[in-house]
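Interim report, section 4.2 (structural modelling).
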Amino acid sequence: MSLPHYTDANFKKEVLDSDLPVLVDFWAAWCSPCKMIAPLLEELAKEYSKKIKIGKVDVEASPKTATAYAVMSVPTIIFFKDGKIMEQVVGVLSMSDLKRKIEANL
Amino acid sequence: MKKIFIAATKQNDGKTTVSLGLIFNFRDKFKKVAFIKPIGQRYLEEQGIKVDEDSILIEKVTATCQVRCGLKDMSPVAVEKGFTERYISSPDKKSISKQIKKAFNKVGRRQDLVVIEGTGHAGVGSVFDHSNAYVAKLLGSKVIIISSGGIGRPIDEILLNKALFEREGVKVLGVIINKVLPSKFDKINCLVRKGLARKGVDVLGVIPYNPMLSYPTVEQIIEETDFEILCGKESLGSYVSRVMVGAMKPRDAIKYIVNDSLLITPGDREDMITAALGCFRTSDKKELKISGLVLTGNVIPGEPTISLLRNSKIPVLLAKTDTYTAASCVHDLTVKIRPQDKDKIDTVIKLVRDNIDFKKILKRI
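Predicted structure of the assembly:
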């Protein structure tokens, strides 16, 4: 299952106005560490489908959103709840760390 | 034959920078220009002989102009390990003087100008009876003193060094103030000229500081340390503009990573390593901000991270020491311009051309 793509155009609707908490993975096609984390997030999206939305923002395709959240490194993962940032993590995380962070931000 | 002795108030004030700049910028005034560094303290093995590294730089860089001298004659005395101890036990002043004069005569034969580069401050070499002041006298040359930055300190040090040259009866033509911060340039330019004029010293030039000249390449860092290359050999020529220790959380650390940073972090900080591998330049998102990584503690990260590092193509070095020791080693490096640093050499030539009064020098030598 591939993750939904959030863009400058739909970020407000899909993320900020979402009823469920949202995990957003800011990534780039050239970024090797991003490729490490992608399959983990896809698996988690299935496991937590009822509790949290998980999607990604391509920093090159959606520069406004990346700049608005001061994304200086990819992957950057930001947890949103009720349109607010709950946590922001930079770099690759292990499956157990990702799960722990998701649970903490539900 | 004209001669000019380039002296300094201390090591790394920029004697070689000025010598190089003078040689290139005097090309249209003098048909044949030679170079000699009578006493060298940082030497390399070249063609089987110990030669000062500044002489090697000048010899290689000036191959296209009229500088034609043998390397051995350009660098007759190499102060190697044990040199001073041997001299104190069995001094032989005449032999060193003879060696220097012989090399100078060979280098200067049929030349229009010889640029003589000193070593350290005016008194360096006194321990074996060949201070810079004495060598300038021995070769019958007038002197230009280089000092770096500031206002009070360079004036104090210039006067101290000048006194030593004058005690040997050597004429000081004037001084050049090097590495002046651009933000303080106008103030220092005005005050130092005024302050030195009060003491009867003429300022021949004030050169602004260009940080690019002191950036090492990753290759130079390897040469000066015992770091081992893990991967990224193809990018060893990348410059390092800033050294950054990755000790914070990645989210905070990345705020301090600027373009061409060298990141020094423990080998087990895979979070920091992967975060740095995602730090992109705003101008070109495909290019990483870091120009290299030093992994400390002799710890090699796990295969997934190593594989990422290999793919990134940036040089990754392994240090056997802790992070503080590794960072201190890099911080303490003396960055010398090397023959292959074409952009640095071009910058030097331009800096000297734009900021030194050649007419004044020509009139006085």
